[in-house]
């Protein structure tokens, strides 16, 4: 009988099976934790990539576009004057968010150089053309809801006072909204500059 007990004590097959079960359980737990970490990192990376792409598209696409003709105003009643003022209209491009015209920056480029324009708030409130060179103002045409946001269905009128430009002079006016690419309006002053003309 004692010999049988000794043989039972020396038989370690049960302990080997228990150890294998513990190791297998440890592997399962480690694999579950690792897969959770990997999936969580993957979701975070995907969300970051989505946000980056969305921001890139927002900054790469234009927020505003021209909505109508560009009107030039000469300094004289006759055709022998210079170009002194320019007016044009803008609206939102399809699918864009409202643009705050308060935060919009205007500049223009001529042969003599590049000029950053100054916003004249008095003329914005009155909706009239600025009288000083290198100034601009804005107003709304049609459905204005009283704020300074250019929203869907609204048209903004931009009033620009440039340095008096002679006939055949080239110029570029740049509209830089807070988000999106710059809208560039490039024109050449016609040979005959009338008091009011479509460019």
Structure description:
The chain is elongated and about 105 Å long. It starts with a helix and ends with a strand. The chain has helices spanning 2-10, 13-60, 121-126, and strands at residues 64-66, 71-74, 83-92, 99-100, 105-110, 113-116, 118-119, 135-141, 149-150, 155-165, 170-176, 183-188, 196-198. It has 2 domains: 2-60; 64-198, Immunoglobulin-like (Sandwich). With 199 residues, it is of the alpha+beta class. The longest helix has 48 residues, at 13-60. The strands form 3 sheets. Strands 1, 2, 3, 7, 8, 10 and 13 form a 7-stranded mixed sheet that branches.
Query: Helix tally?
Result: 3
Name of the top-level CATH class of the largest domain = Mainly Beta
Pick out the low-confidence regions: none
Overall geometry: elongated
> Over the alpha carbons, how many angstroms does the gyration radius reach?
35 Å
The biggest beta sheet reads: 7 strands, mixed
Series of secondary-structure elements, N-terminal to C-terminal = HHEEEEEEEHEEEEEE
- The tally of domains stands at 2
- β-strand amount: 25-35%
CATH topology label of the largest domain: Immunoglobulin-like
Overall average residue pLDDT: 80
Residues in helix, %: 25-40%
Counting helices, strands and paired strands, the structural category is: alpha+beta
């Amino acid at each position: 009988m004692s010999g049988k007990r000794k043989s039972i004590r020396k038989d370690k097959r049960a302990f080997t099976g228990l150890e294998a079960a513990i190791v297998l359980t440890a592997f399962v737990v480690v694999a579950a934790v690792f897969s959770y970490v990997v999936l969580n990192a993957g979701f975070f990376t995907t969300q970051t990539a989505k946000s980056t792409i969305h921001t890139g598209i927002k900054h790469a696409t234009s927020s505003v576009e021209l909505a109508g003709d560009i009107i030039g105003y000469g300094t004289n009643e006759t055709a022998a004057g210079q170009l002194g003022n320019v007016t044009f209209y803008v609206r939102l491009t399809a699918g864009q968010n409202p643009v705050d015209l308060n935060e919009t920056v205007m500049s223009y480029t001529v042969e003599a150089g590049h000029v950053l324009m100054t916003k004249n708030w008095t003329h914005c409130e009155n909706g009239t053309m600025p009288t000083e060179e290198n100034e601009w103002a804005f107003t709304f045409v049609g459905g204005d809801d009283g704020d300074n946001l250019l929203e869907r269905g609204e048209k903004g009128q931009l009033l620009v006072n440039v340095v008096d430009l002679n006939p055949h002079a080239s110029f570029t006016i740049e509209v830089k909204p807070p988000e999106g690419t710059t809208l560039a309006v490039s024109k050449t002053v016609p040979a005959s500059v009338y008091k009011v003309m479509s460019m």
